[in-house]
Automatic annotation (TrEMBL), chain A:
<comment type="similarity">
    <text>Belongs to the gas vesicle GvpF/GvpL family.</text>
</comment>
<protein>
    <submittedName>
        <fullName>Gas vesicle synthesis protein GvpL/GvpF</fullName>
    </submittedName>
</protein>
<feature type="compositionally biased region" description="Low complexity">
    <location>
        <begin position="164"/>
        <end position="173"/>
    </location>
</feature>
<feature type="region of interest" description="Disordered">
    <location>
        <begin position="154"/>
        <end position="173"/>
    </location>
</feature>
<dbReference type="GO" id="GO:0031412">
    <property type="term" value="P:gas vesicle organization"/>
</dbReference>
<dbReference type="InterPro" id="IPR009430">
    <property type="entry name" value="GvpL/GvpF"/>
</dbReference>
<dbReference type="GO" id="GO:0031411">
    <property type="term" value="C:gas vesicle"/>
</dbReference>
<keyword id="KW-0304">Gas vesicle</keyword>
<dbReference type="Pfam" id="PF06386">
    <property type="entry name" value="GvpL_GvpF"/>
</dbReference>
Automatic annotation (TrEMBL), chain B:
<feature type="compositionally biased region" description="Basic and acidic residues">
    <location>
        <begin position="94"/>
        <end position="103"/>
    </location>
</feature>
<dbReference type="GO" id="GO:0012506">
    <property type="term" value="C:vesicle membrane"/>
</dbReference>
<dbReference type="InterPro" id="IPR018493">
    <property type="entry name" value="GvpA-like_CS"/>
</dbReference>
<keyword id="KW-0304">Gas vesicle</keyword>
<dbReference type="InterPro" id="IPR000638">
    <property type="entry name" value="Gas-vesicle_GvpA-like"/>
</dbReference>
<protein>
    <submittedName>
        <fullName>Gas vesicle protein GvpJ 2</fullName>
    </submittedName>
</protein>
<dbReference type="GO" id="GO:0031411">
    <property type="term" value="C:gas vesicle"/>
</dbReference>
<feature type="region of interest" description="Disordered">
    <location>
        <begin position="94"/>
        <end position="118"/>
    </location>
</feature>
<dbReference type="GO" id="GO:0005198">
    <property type="term" value="F:structural molecule activity"/>
</dbReference>
Length: 282, 118
């Protein structure tokens, strides 16, 4: 993939073009603290709060140049690594800052309406579901747990074919070779099972402190490096009061186990992106 | 990488936007579906294509790690510059390999018949 940063005018000049309303998140009004606001998407107006019908909910919104958020424009912008990073970080920053004002329901990247009135009406239609989700995540946060296992196989004898007794051409070399292959396959199976057990153990330890969990497909070795397979990629919804327990519990499982070098990586607290679906994402 | 490594910062949500790992952010945002719950629609096929491209992007950035580029260990954020240097390095390696295959020492210019493919 190439970074194409040529020719396209920077988003920016909101001079005169049509604007659309971008909605980042919904939260309750009257939290302990006003939601913090960050700049939002480049080229847009100020990020602000849009009161929703009923008075108890508000949306975090920004007017953005409609031309930057058409199908073509989005495909181009999100296909460009630099633009993608800018967009994703802007989105994440707005949502994370807004969460200072209480539990939030983050909406998908680039949730767009033709006008703020439309946004307000559409969100009012989903009011019950939004309130349910807010109740569910109140006082809770998402914690991500990833487990990698470093591959330093305990040097199996002659695994690299340097066994002098099995030098090619010697009698029995073929049988010895096959035996080695079978042995390696057995070792591989055993390792694989051990890895799954480690993943399961960490997941259980975390889940014991969580109210909900999602398990994502672990990243492949193309991403993590060949010698560092990822065996668990999970997220947990955790009461704020139990977060330190969860972190301690999963970290305790890092280190050497049965010949495996287990790395446990915890990050959080995150806005509970993974537990706030309104049930209508594609 | 964990916020708990810096216990001083216990803001409500601490993987602060500026330092949170881009891959972690994208993973969450992509799982919510990119675009479009509002009334400006993008058709599903395009969203899927987009998702695939984004996932490819994440992978290609992270090949930098495999290539031994050290920013990965020192800076957990996937910086765009790192992505580009990984790409540059990959291009360089590919050029070297093409040169080898064409039987000329790496670094010497291609003959005219060789088609430019970078």
């Amino acid at each position: 993939m190439t970074a194409t940063d040529v020719g396209h005018p920077r988003t920016g000049t909101s001079g005169g073009g049509a604007m659309a309303t971008c909605v980042f998140a919904v939260l309750r009004t009257g939290g302990r603290q006003a939601p913090a606001l960050t700049p939002g998407h480049a080229g847009g107006g100020a990020v602000g709060l849009l009161p929703l019908p009923g008075g108890d909910l508000q949306a975090v919104v920004q007017d953005v140049p409609a031309a930057d958020f058409t199908q073509e424009a989005l495909r181009r912008r999100l296909g460009d690594p630099l633009e993608l990073e800018r967009c994703a970080r802007a989105h994440h920053a707005v949502i994370t800052a807004a969460a200072a004002g209480g539990a939030v329901v983050p909406l998908p990247l680039a949730t767009l309406f033709t006008a703020s009135g439309r946004a307000s009406a559409a969100l009012a239609d989903r009011r019950d579901r939004i309130l349910d989700v807010l109740d569910r995540v109140e006082g809770r946060a998402e914690w991500a747990v990833k487990v990698h296992v470093a591959q330093h196989a305990p040097a199996p004898p002659a695994a690299d074919g340097k066994d002098p007794a099995a030098a090619p051409g010697r009698p029995g070399a073929g049988a010895a070779y096959l035996a080695r292959v079978r042995g390696r396959e057995r070792d591989r199976q055993a390792r694989h099972e051990a890895l799954l057990r480690v993943a399961g153990r960490v997941h259980e330890a975390a889940a014991a402190h969580a109210v909900a969990a999602v398990r994502r497909t672990p990243h492949g070795t193309a991403i993590t490096g060949k010698d560092r397979p990822q065996v668990l990629n999970a997220a947990f919804l955790v009461d704020d009061s139990r977060a330190t327990d969860l972190v301690a519990a999963v970290r305790a499982l890092g280190g050497a186990h049965a010949g495996l070098d287990v790395h446990v990586e915890v990050s959080g607290p995150w806005v509970p992106y993974s537990f706030t679906s309104l049930g209508e994402e594609p | 990488m964990s916020a708990l490594d810096h216990p001083g910062a216990t803001a409500p949500y601490s993987p602060t936007p500026s330092t949170a790992n881009l891959a972690d952010i994208l993973e969450r945002i992509l799982d919510k579906g990119i675009v479009i719950a509002g009334d400006i629609k993008i058709d599903l096929l395009d969203i899927e294509l987009l998702t695939i491209r984004l996932r490819l992007f994440i992978s290609s950035v992270e090949t930098a790690k495999k290539a031994g580029i050290d920013w990965w260990e020192t800076d957990p954020a996937l910086s765009s510059r790192a992505a580009q240097s990984a790409l540059a390095r990959e291009n360089e390696e590919l050029r070297g390999r093409v040169a080898e295959l064409e039987g000329r020492p790496p670094g010497t210019p291609k003959r005219n018949r060789a088609k430019e493919s970078a």
